[in-house]
């Protein structure tokens, strides 16, 4: 997964009547028509509503019609239209994507094609190390690419359902400036700015910043953020490009622990627990994350056919994460619980590097090849230091947080640990185009992974020390046919792998789990249009899944198999100059098909947080035909069918949410906008180990000044 910003290997020939950074440049009531021959880059903004390029599925800056795997691209225009506040929200109008927990501001966990993923990528490289390393700031992104299905050939260890790759904003050679101010319910206040400055013909700098002071619908849970992202691009000639990038982010919020199914899914004699209820200990619980990243990208066009690229990225997160949470229902009560408390301190770091060469060559006059060869390396460290204690009781239906307290004594938790992971992968891929119509891709990758876990408080204790060396080879193969009318059917097989520490009853290290996907689909994107229609059918098998050992239930054996299969449909189109439409549908059947002889009842069980059916549609309209091009309105509907919890068998009901927006362009510089999510204030829950209320009606107004 590696994006190229230089045009040497790009094959898109579309010409758009707009500037490459149209979403950032000042708007006018009658947009200027500026014709440019610059094609859309997969390392930059999306031109309009439907992307024409992608990098995550091919490893190169390529036409999306040449991709032999399902992918969705969301640009800033769509993010702002639907009012997305985080990366997962930005994908809620895409097919088959579900948030793991309805209300979570501490992770980017999601479920795609039936399999959960707890990590995202940034600029083609893994971003988070630990699940709780925090979310990414969507205002700092140009686009978000969702790759569906196994993708280990380009990215190494990954779950089989897919992965999110967020593309950060980087400098471009055109002066542009933007400032925004927002207010909303839950005491939401935010200011943001995006400043791009050309220093000279070779050098441009960019600064993106966000400051937010906000509450949430959950009692005493803030949503505060400070985000600063400077970057610099130096391009001394047509063949060399260097981008330096950094960001600092401080989040102050809290992880919402959720509530039991009784009181959320199921009503009790006392009704249901209030949406605003927080089981936390007031004044004690918090999620305080200070995170920064540093990195660079270098591209060198060695000759017209050979491009060499190198990236390096370092991330560091320091998290203070104390929590108080319900522990046990008090005997004789139907609503009062004891609470436990925990002091937790997490530290994460990642160092990830990638070197790749892209060679464009012709086997014959009508056969073009783009060969990709790369080596990547990652070094990850995560430590969690934890202490357990007690806390005062709480009543779910009548909480009195003025009585909240935690005990004075905290004892170390044995499973506090320090984890190290190293991975080195080497990959080779060739994409062949025959007669400018037939596209075939074949790729293979080999990885070596080392995992080590040591106890935090006594690193020398051999009984708690675990380590293992793993290796895996994965492959991919696909074919697409590019018709002259913009239709491109495709078929592919893709593989993935994941490694986990652990041993079976005989003391053997667990093998990596394997994911294999078979997919056929079709895309339609007429040349020069702002339209992309996609349909796909797939089956994913995940094997070597750990299940209970039939001989000794203290151990596991890798006899399990999980299968996900389904149909996905997506449409993104500018129907005309004033009307956009986004629609998606997914049917997903994910379940365990093989288990242990000790647990045959698991065979056939549905996977958690995977509804059979999900559907969404969004449309916005500019009133130019009525003499008011300044006014734009939009509305959308999101439907998710019923599903079961990820870690329990409770079934939560399906739900339908309505969103809306309106904007008004005052003049060339000033504009106003209003976004409402869950406009009808629908009450809904999702479940994992507990159940979590989704956000009620949320309305945010924004003033923007561009120059």
Describe the protein in words.
The protein is an all-beta fold and 707 residues long. It has a single domain (53-337, 351-407, 415-706), classed as TonB-dependent receptor, beta-barrel domain (Maltoporin, Chain A). It has three helices and 38 strands. It has a 22-stranded antiparallel β-barrel. Strands 3-9-10-7-8 form a five-stranded mixed β-sheet. Strands 4-5-6 form a three-stranded antiparallel β-sheet, with no helix packed on it. The longest helix is centred in the first third of the chain and has 7 residues, at 76-82. It starts with 52 loop residues before the first strand and ends with a strand.
Question: What's the total count of β strands?
Answer: 38
CATH architecture: Beta Barrel
- Percent strand equals over 45%
The major beta sheet can be summarized as: 22 strands, antiparallel, barrel
Helix content: under 10%
Structural class: mainly beta
CATH topology: Maltoporin, Chain A
What's the CATH class, please? Answer: Mainly Beta
Taken from the alpha-carbon principal axes, the silhouette is: globular
Radius of gyration: 25 Å
Kindly report the name of the CATH homologous superfamily.
TonB-dependent receptor, beta-barrel domain
Average pLDDT for all residues? 92
Low-confidence stretches: 2-37
Helical run tally: 3
| Oligomer status | single chain
Can you tell me the number of structural domains? Answer: 1
What is the end-to-end distance?
35 Å
């Amino acid at each position: 997964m590696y994006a190229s910003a230089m045009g040497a290997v790009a094959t898109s020939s579309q010409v758009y009547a707009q500037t490459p950074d149209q979403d950032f440049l000042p708007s006018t009531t009658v947009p200027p028509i500026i014709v440019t021959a610059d094609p859309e880059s997969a390392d930059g903004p999306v031109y309009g509503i439907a992307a024409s390029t992608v990098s995550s599925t091919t490893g190169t800056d390529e036409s999306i019609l040449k991709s032999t795997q399902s992918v969705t691209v969301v640009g800033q225009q769509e993010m702002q239209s639907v009012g997305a506040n985080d990366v997962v929200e930005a994908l809620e109008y895409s097919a088959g994507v579900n948030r793991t927990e309805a209300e979570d501001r501490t992770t980017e966990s999601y479920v795609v094609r039936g399999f959960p993923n707890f990590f995202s990528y940034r600029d083609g490289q893994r971003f988070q190390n630990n699940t709780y390393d925090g979310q990414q700031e969507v205002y700092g992104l140009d686009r978000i690419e969702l790759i569906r299905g196994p993708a280990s050939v380009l990215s190494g260890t990954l779950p089989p359902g897919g992965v999110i790759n967020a593309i950060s904003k980087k400098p471009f050679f055109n002066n542009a400036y933007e400032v925004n101010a927002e207010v909303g319910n839950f005491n939401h206040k935010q200011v943001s700015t995006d400043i791009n400055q050309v220093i000279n013909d070779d050098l441009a700098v960019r600064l993106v910043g966000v400051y937010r002071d906000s509450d949430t619908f959950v009692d005493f849970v803030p949503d505060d953020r400070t985000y600063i992202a400077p970057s610099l691009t130096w391009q001394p000639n047509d063949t060399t490009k260097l981008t330096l990038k950094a960001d600092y982010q401080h989040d102050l919020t809290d992880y919402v622990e959720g509530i039991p199914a009784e009181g959320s899914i199921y009503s009790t004699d006392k009704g249901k627990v209030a949406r605003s209820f927080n089981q936390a200990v007031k004044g004690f619980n918090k999620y305080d994350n200070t995170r920064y990243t540093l990195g660079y990208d270098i591209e060198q066009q060695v000759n017209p056919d050979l491009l060499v690229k190198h990236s390096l990225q370092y991330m560091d997160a320091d998290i203070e994460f104390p929590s108080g949470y319900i522990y046990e229902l008090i005997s004789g009560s139907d609503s009062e619980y004891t609470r436990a408390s925990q002091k937790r301190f997490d530290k994460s770091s990642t160092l990830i590097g990638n070197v790749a060469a892209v060679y464009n060559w012709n086997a014959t006059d009508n056969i073009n090849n783009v060969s990709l060869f790369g080596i990547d390396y990652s070094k990850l460290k995560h430590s969690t230091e934890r202490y357990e204690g007690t806390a005062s009781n709480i009543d779910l239906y009548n909480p009195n947080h003025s009585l909240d307290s935690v005990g004075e004594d905290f004892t170390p938790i044995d499973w506090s640990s320090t984890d190290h992971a190293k991975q080195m992968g080497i990959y080779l891929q060739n994409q062949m185009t025959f007669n400018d119509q037939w596209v075939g891709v074949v790729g293979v990758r080999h990885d070596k992974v080392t995992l080590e876990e040591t106890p935090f408080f006594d690193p020398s204790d051999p009984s708690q020390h675990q380590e293992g060396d793993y290796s895996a080879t994965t492959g991919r193969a696909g074919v697409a046919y590019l018709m002259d009318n913009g239709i491109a059917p495709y078929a592919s097989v893709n593989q993935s792998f994941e490694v986990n520490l652990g041993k079976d009853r005989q003391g053997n290290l667990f093998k990596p789990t394997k994911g294999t996907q078979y997919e056929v689909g079709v895309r339609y994107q007429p040349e020069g249009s702002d339209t992309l229609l996609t349909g796909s059918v797939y089956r994913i098998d995940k094997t070597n899944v750990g299940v209970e050992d039939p001989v000794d239930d203290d151990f596991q054996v890798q006899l399990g198999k999980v299968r996900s299969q389904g149909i996905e449909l997506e449409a993104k189109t500018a129907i005309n100059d004033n009307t956009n439409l986004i629609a998606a549908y997914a049917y997903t059947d994910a379940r365990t098909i093989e288990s242990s002889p000790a647990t045959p009842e698991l065979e056939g069980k549905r996977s958690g947080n995977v509804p059979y059916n999900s559907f969404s549609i969004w449309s916005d309209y500019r009133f130019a035909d009525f003499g008011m091009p300044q006014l734009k309105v939009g509305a959308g509907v999101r439907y998710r069918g019923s599903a079961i919890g990820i870690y329990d068998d409770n079934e939560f009901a399906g739900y339908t949410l309505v969103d809306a927006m309106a904007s008004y362009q005052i003049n060339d510089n000033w504009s106003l906008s209003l976004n409402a999510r869950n406009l009808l204030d629908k009450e809904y829950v999702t479940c994992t180990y507990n159940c979590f209320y989704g956000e009620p009606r949320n309305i945010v107004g924004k003033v923007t000044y561009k120059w």
